[in-house]
Write a structure and sequence with these properties.
By secondary structure, the chain is mostly helical. The chain contains 13 helices and two strands.
């Protein structure tokens, strides 16, 4: 028991020390980006545009928070984009079949959780590498979404469902921003203040030591991948609400943005290090870059090059930090 307590304390201390640099370096970069774009493009700093940035970032934030739990264990989840599509489609089909909005939304969330649990099973019980396991889930979920819709978009709308991707009645304030804040607060608490979060850090720091200390590795991974699936499903439902359409092609390549936001925010691909706040900062760096470059008329191709370069720099800094540790 004492060994387990010591392991938790050591893991927590290591996380606090190693994530400090990554999180605050990312925050400084975000502030610098906002200042630069505000100077060279004055319309960028208007309230309406800043709300647009936050709205566009909300989807990335949902899935970024989810994948942070997985990456902290030195895992990965490549199936996020496909789960976004499958969950949105499941919700849309249920509503079109006459199901009330709330049960249909719950069905979509359950679909995401099932996908996450499937990942946990394949990784923990079948002992497949997370990269291969979640790559398989990506293909299965996307194929299911395309099959059950015949690749056709599904129009879906109801007052409650539309509210999820709309604005607070009587205002121009987007509801997804409120959901994003709640998600960040809830899952920051889960990661920092609960046993599940401490176990995630312990597994990522040294899985064998965690196992020898009595941690239930399989059960923990099941729960962490379920969280990733749940938040991917939430992203799919909010996205379908915003577009009033559920599409089997939705979420294509979103997993890359999710992983990038976590890594840019200081989450280590080697495991054991990462914070929800850092991931939120990373998501906003991507959102600010895209919005600012759009306002400057920079093509989407160049934007991909820039964000890819930022990701490479972030991973390189992470490697340097690990060498010094």
């Amino acid at each position: 028991m004492n060994e387990m307590v010591n392991l938790k304390n050591e893991s927590t201390n290591a996380v606090a020390a190693k994530s400090f640099f990554g999180k605050f370096a990312a925050f400084a970069a975000l502030i610098l980006l906002i200042i630069v774009f505000s100077i060279i493009c004055p319309p960028f700093r208007t309230l309406n545009n800043l709300l647009t940035v936050a709205l566009q970032t909300s989807i990335i934030s949902f899935i970024g928070v989810g994948v942070t739990f997985v990456i902290i264990t030195a895992g990965i989840d490549l199936g996020i984009g496909s789960v976004i599509a499958l969950s949105g489609v499941a919700t849309g089909l249920a509503m079109n079949a006459g199901c009330p909005s709330l049960p249909a939304i719950l069905l979509g969330l359950v679909v995401g959780i099932i996908c996450g649990l499937f990942n946990g099973f394949v990784i923990s019980n079948m002992k497949l590498p997370p990269f291969i396991a979640t790559l398989g889930t990506m293909m299965i979920a996307r194929g299911l979404a395309l099959y059950i819709t015949n690749a056709a978009p599904i129009t879906v709308s109801s007052p409650f469902f539309d509210l999820l991707g709309g604005t607070i009645p009587g205002t121009n304030f987007p509801v997804p921003i409120i959901i994003m804040i709640l998600v960040a607060l809830v899952f920051a608490f889960v990661l920092n203040k609960t046993r599940l979060g401490r176990y995630a850090y312990a597994i990522g720091s040294n899985e064998e030591a965690a196992r020898l200390s009595g941690l239930k590795i399989k059960r923990t991974k099941y729960m962490l991948y379920a969280i990733s699936g749940l938040l991917a499903a939430l992203a799919g439902i909010v996205l379908a609400s915003r577009l009033s359409t559920a599409q089997a092609t939705a979420g294509n390549a979103y997993e890359l943005d999710a992983i990038a936001s976590a890594v840019i925010g200081g989450t280590s691909l080697n495991g054991g290090v990462g914070t929800i706040m850092g991931t939120m900062i990373g998501a906003f760096i991507i959102g600010v870059l895209r919005n600012g470059l759009n306002m400057l008329g920079v093509s989407s191709f160049i934007q991909s090059i820039v964000i890819g370069g930022v990701l490479i720099v972030a991973v390189y800094i992470d490697q340097l930090r690990n060498k010094k540790a």
